[in-house]
Amino acid sequence: MNELTTDVLVVGGGTGGTAAAIQAARKGVQTILVSETPWLGGMLTAAGVAAPDGNELAAFQTGLWGAYVRSLFHLQPGGLDNSWVSMFSYDPRIGAKIFADWVQSLPNLKWITGKTPIEVCQQNNCITGVRFADLIIKAKVTLDATELGDLLALADVPHRWGWELRSEFDEPSAPVIPNNLTQQYPVQSPTWVVILQDFGNEGNAPEICAPPHDTPQQFVKAWENYGSEQFLNYGRLPGQLFMINWPLHGNDYGIDVGRLVDQDKRQEFLQESLWHTQSFARFIQTQLGRRYGLAESVFPASSLGGGAYALHPYYRESRRLIGLVTVREQDILPVPGGQVAPLSVDAVALGNYANDHHYPGVDFPLQPKSIRWGGRCTGTPFTIPYGALVPISTDGLLVCEKNISVSHIANGSTRLQPVVMNIGQAAGMAAALCVELGCQPRDLPVRRIQEALLEDSFAPGAIVPLFNLLSLHPDWLSWQRYCLDNPEDYPISGTRNWQQETNSAPSTQNWTPLKGIFQRHNDQDYTITLTEPAADAGKVWTLVTLRPDVDDQLQNCLDQQRLTLWGRLNQSGQWLVVEMVDLP
């Protein structure tokens, strides 16, 4: 049995684990990252969710998430304005290359692929390493970055699986008593993503074979009330590709989902989930014709997925740590009369997605946390406290995926790709600081983590959600610190009055100049009827923006005012992403 020793061991190459390993190594400590698949990035790449949700506003594109988005803008031919489910959609191969390049550029980061954990090494109440089939890796700090919280189970670390009743956390959306939903779906349903390709009008795509359990009848209402074109454009990617991750009579799969935490039955569930998606892909081709077929060369081959099928499912929920702090629904909902959730003074990451739960065939009502900003719906921003990453009683361990200490209800917001990436970066920074200071994660001063994240030389990350303060603004760091020092002054609007910086925008040569007549339909609801260029005269586009300076300008524009603006057109969403407004 081979044995390696390192400062930080990250088990799992998903969204959070990849970010954690990169951040720990960039902080200067010896790091080993062990992944099950040959692709890093998890949800963002290997699971095929190449149209991520959340943290899309410019002020929230910070840290490694912001660096990832900027790299995608630079590397993705055709741009990222392709789908209507996300502000960014891309070929997952591009994302996988970005993560691989980042990891391989760090000489103190060793990446080992194709291994799953078998046993967790412990001494007294401290995790000291992990055993794999032919390898033991000892570490000062170990991070559980597995998709399903496998290290928590292997080490008998206290954790949750399933629902909490309202009596536990007093969450307004939690059930009062167990019911059919809580029994049928202990966690949210995963989705095995498939990528389809448009082969053109000739209709010569290879036929998609039927799986052993082909059930087309369950998909007959999949795009009812949407139409096939809008259905496909939901997850449109560049290069005539389509990400199929469709929740309505689609490829969410949750039959006996509890098998995921039964090691003897997990493969059985995964095979059924893959067959379910194969059946859905075949149904789409049967209904829409042989113009659409499998994009066979997207993913590398694997034991189950590969080719057009993702390497593993998009897991929406995991075993969840019982940590020093638990994130509850109240912690992600807006404060009374405001647009932000309560600010945790121990925050180390931020997110802003709506609370979104997936149970096939079930419409589960939740307390609303969506708001309108920049002409579109977005989510109330919230923060993740450091204590949600730290076990309540186990040393030598941090978590950094969907396995943080969070309630089942709040997990619907904390599970999204950008916030998990932020959590991973914070966990990696904390692990590196523990090595530097020679302390356990529970003893690490939170302010040390916060300062290190804010001042990181490669990818400084925002901790306090402020809608109208970009990270390039000269006052960004001082206001982040001020709100952490004076949480009582954190504005419930999520904005403060300061001079906006407009010179941080990219060159206008990358944008389309357009002229037209502005229409104000309601608060944060705008369109423009184009007058120039002449070929587009009369066309109406919804106006949206991710930039705070442009948001201010649009709010102050008058109905029927003539405007010249620059931006990017999204044909799938029929919106224009405004980057600059030229007011007369």
Automatic annotation (TrEMBL):
Biological process, per Gene Ontology: NAD+ biosynthetic process
Pfam family, one: FAD_oxidored
Gene Ontology terms for molecular function: L-aspartate oxidase activity
Signal sequence residues: none
UniProt-listed Gene3D superfamilies: FAD/NAD(P)-binding domain
SUPFAM superfamilies: FAD/NAD(P)-binding domain
Domain of life according to the entry: Bacteria
Name of the protein described by the UniProt record: Putative secreted protein
Organism (species): uncultured Coleofasciculus sp
